[in-house]
Amino acid sequence: MSDSETLASNAIEFSVTDLSNALKRTLEDRFGFVRVRGEISGYRGPHSSGHAYFSLKDANAKLDAIIWRGVFQRMKVKPQEGLEVIATGKISTFPGKSSYQLLIESLEPAGVGALMALLDARRKALEAEGLFRLERKRPLPFLPRIVGVVTSPTGAVIRDILHRLADRFPLHVLVWPVRVQGETAASEVAAAIQGFNALEPGGPIPRPDVLIVARGGGSLEDLWSFNEEIVARAAAASRIPLIAAVGHETDWTLIDHVADLRAPTPTAAAELAVPVRAELVARVVGLEARAQGAMLRASQRWRGDLRSLARALPSGEALLASARQRLDLASGALRSLSRAGLDSRALRLQRASGRLILQSPSARFATARERRRALADRLARAGSALILTFREALTQAALAQGREAARDAARRREAFSALSRRFDQLRQEQGRARAERQGRLAADGERLTRAFERLMRARAERLASRSQLLRAVGYKNVLARGFALVRDAEGQPIRRAAEAPKSGLLQIEFADSTLSASLGAPPRRKSTRGKAPDDQGSLL
């Protein structure tokens, strides 16, 4: 038998309970009173039993800690997540899990831990950039068609979300699997948010209408991936409304501040994303019933109003009576106005014709011709008188002065010749001016003739339209449709039977002729047996 076998056979055998209790006594005896400095992590408040469970950690290690209910109630300094404290207590073990833990008796604050300081610095920087402003947060769609979920595909979170969505409003769900803890978790979550935003609407993979970024609860270290700046910026740049559901009610991360909406739990995120289909159906049914009831009540009210209005309306005869009277008055006024209008227009036309005749080309030509003839006569008389004057002057000069007079006569003849030539030039110029005036007179005459024709055509058309209107509204057309006009003996029209005289002559005008009739009771027939009556009576 070897030495190892001899030692193994001589070693004392312990049960698991004995060994656990021995270790527990050893630790409690060795570390009966210790002071430990560390950062509180994983604190969720007191348990339902009143005890508080969390961890103390530093850069390299983590120690589980417990505060019993009685101690917790007496503490002046309560534990807070991320708070660096100095804990006083003793080390003990928990045999059920083979783990050791610190039973804390008192706490003293030692400052904020490194992770909390880093988190607070990031939060302040992002808040200074405006990523937490309420005005940049978008409202969620009331009824999304597609919901995108960024979470771990193996955890209970995705099952809770799918189950809640199926219960409330079944729809299409796209899951982008990522790690939610570890070194690559932050980059994977940011890439998932960017990937969902890169999808084209209506493409082979439909673009979600709302995103849910979810993870279960955990300590500050477990949720640290959602405090990374890359995740917060990806959530802020998302064009799709985003719901953050990281951890439990008391857990807060940077993505909760940046997201459009924060849900306390992943299940609550599913409830915020979609409404309850049964409630919507019930609401639609209720609205439809209310609409039908409103339409029924409105139709009944309208029917009653219609009956009231129908009773309040006057009869057709009453409605037409005033219109008939106005038509009769208008017809009489139209006849008188039409006659007066035609007379006044005929008078104006006659006056205008007289003025046009005075300004006609023939009258103006005659006037110009008379003026030309008078001017020609005046020129002829002036020339003759001038010639006689010069001849007498020459004769007297020749007789009185001789040769000198002859020279003067020659000069005078030359002057007379010049004057004659000037007179001929003036006559030619007058002829040209007369020709120009005659041309202008001819052009003015043509314009006046055209204007007169246009005026006559316009007035003829206006007269024809007025005549057509008179024929349209006149009573002759009414007679042509089979009606008759009844007048009394004085020629006044009778419009109602009450206006007719008891007896006398009536004139009945038809479309083609007028007949006379008499009103009065027919004579009584006498009993004449065996003899034909002399008078058959009047039919009217």
Description:
The protein has 540 residues and is α/β, with parallel strands linked by helices. Among the domains are: 16-112, OB fold (Dihydrolipoamide Acetyltransferase, E2P) (Beta Barrel); 144-273, 3-Layer(aba) Sandwich (Rossmann fold), CATH 3.40.50.2300; 350-465; 485-517, no CATH class. It is built from 14 helices and 13 strands. The strands form 3 sheets. The chain has a 5-stranded mixed β-barrel. Strands 7-6-8-9-10 form a 5-stranded parallel sheet, sandwiched between helices. It has a 3-stranded antiparallel sheet with strand order 11-12-13, with no helix packed on it. Strand 6, helix 5 and strand 7 form a beta-alpha-beta unit. Helix 12 packs antiparallel against helix 13 (403-473). The longest helix is centred in the last third of the chain and has 71 residues, at 403-473.
